[in-house]
Structures are given as structure tokens and as C-alpha cells.
Specification:
The protein is α/β, with parallel strands linked by helices. It has 5 helices and 7 strands; from the N terminus they run E-H-E-E-H-E-H-E-H-E-H-E. Strands 3-2-1-4-5-6-7 form a 7-stranded parallel beta sheet, with helices on both faces. The longest helix is centred in the middle third of the chain and has 29 residues. 44% of the residues are buried.
Length: 235
């Protein structure tokens, strides 16, 4: 049950209109966080501690405005995403640029403001939603490259602020039961069902994110943690 009176913890979560971002925001609200949700789509959450801001994070100016709004928060979760897949010979530069702007450039602008403020305050949590595809996947090179970049940035930022009480991690799910599974951009590459026998659930990803935001996870930083239903076992 969601608490009616949240405490003073403040967070920014991107991509809160659906999928993993929505699940994360709802979970954080239930734990008493005040959440600012950034999304290009209309809000799907109605809660007194939720402030929906509608903007396109793939637009650099909009992302900069969002960064200013996010200053002073104790947590940032970047879950906004889009998937465009194509094999070699059919790679589409505009698609690649769109994913890079949303997955990488937007969170760079956010973290460039948010993380130094967290470090100055002596505490903070950042979780970036990556993907199993970030390790490389046939037909998904442009998407995979943007998700792999998140891991490199998270590890680099984590190394800069670990002594200041700030953690930066990546959570990389296997195929998750969201609207993105039905996105036309995935038609060329069908999602794979993990050995568990089903897709991941957004709530399962949100639960892991919630742990990384908690005091119990203070010693976990710079990690790429997979929630994959056994998909990473055969290597």
C-alpha cells in the first residue's frame, strides 16, 4: 500500500509513463520517496508525492532544463529508453543518433549536475537501466552500443565519487514484459525468452533498483547487475 505521507527523500526517475520506469516510480512512492517523473508521454501515475514533467529528454536543451530541476535530489534512476534494431547493411544513422541522445547524452547531462551535488552533500544513489544486449547481440549493434556506454560511464563516475558516499550502478534486464516488446523497431529481431521460461517483470527490476537505492547497498557501486532469468548462464 502506498504511504499517504512521504518522507523528505527526493528522486528523479525518467521514463515513468510505462514499463520499468513506471514500476520504479510506483515502488519508490510506496517507500515514501517524493518522485519527479520525466517522460515525453503523459503521466500514468496519480499520487500526491509524484510530480510529472513532460519533456523530450532526447532534446539537449530539454535535458539541460531537466538537469537543473533535478539538482538536490538524493536519487536518480534513468529508465527512459527506445529500441531500434537492424543488422549490418541496414543500420540507420538517425535511429542510432536517437538512441544515443536518449540513453547516453540525456543521462550525461543529468548526472553532470546531479552527481556533483550528491557528492557535495555526502550521499546519493544513481541507477541506470541498461540491457543484457549491452554485452553484444546480433542485429542490435546500435542499441547495444548505447547500453554498453552506460556501463562505462557508471563505472567511471562511481570511481570519482565513491569516497563521497555516492553510488552509481547499472541494472541490465533481459527481455522485460513491457510495451517495448511490441515496438515496431523490434520486428527484425524477436525477443528471446530466458531459460526461466518467461520474460522479466518490471516489478522485479524495480525491486532490484529499490535495493540499490537503500542504505543496505551503500557498498555496491560501479556494478552492472543483470536480472536475466538465467540468460547469462551459458557462456
Amino acid at each position: 500500500m502506498e504511504r499517504s505521507v512521504p518522507n523528505d527523500r527526493r528522486a528523479v526517475v525518467t521514463g515513468t509513463s510505462s514499463g520499468i520506469g513506471e514500476a520504479v516510480a510506483r515502488s519508490m512512492l510506496a517507500e515514501g520517496w517524493r518522485v519527479v517523473g520525466l517522460d515525453v508521454a503523459a503521466a500514468s501515475i496519480d499520487h500526491p508525492a509524484f510530480d510529472a514533467v513532460r519533456l523530450d529528454l532526447s532534446d539537449g536543451d530539454a535535458a539541460e532544463r531537466a538537469a537543473s530541476r533535478a539538482s538536490g535530489v538524493q536519487a536518480l534512476v534513468h529508465a527512459a529508453g527506445v529500441a531500434c534494431y537492424a543488422p549490418l547493411g541496414k543500420l540507420n544513422a538517425p535511429d542510432g543518433e536517437k538512441m544515443w541522445r536518449l540513453h547516453v547524452d540525456a543521462v550525461t547531462r543529468l548526472c553532470n549536475t546531479v552527481i556533483p551535488a550528491m557528492a557535495a552533500a555526502g550521499a546519493g544513489r544513481v541507477v541506470l537501466i541498461g540491457s543484457r544486449a549491452g554485452q553484444g547481440k546480433a542485429g542490435r549493434s546500435q542499441y547495444a552500443a548505447t547500453k554498453a556506454a552506460l556501463v562505462a560511464m557508471a563505472r567511471s563516475w562511481a570511481a570519482e565519487v565513491v569516497a563521497a558516499g555516492v553510488t552509481v550502478n547499472v541494472v541490465s534486464p533481459a527481455a522485460t514484459q513491457t510495451a517495448m516488446l511490441k515496438d515496431p523497431g523490434r520486428r527484425s529481431v524477436a525477443p528471446e525468452v530466458p531459460p526461466l521460461g518467461r520474460y522479466m517483470l518490471p516489478e522485479e527490476v524495480a525491486a532490484l533498483v529499490g535495493f540499490l537505492l537503500s542504505p543496505a547497498a551503500a557498498a555496491i557501486t560501479g556494478q552492472d547487475i543483470q536480472i536475466c532469468g538465467g540468460a547469462s548462464l551459458p557462456r
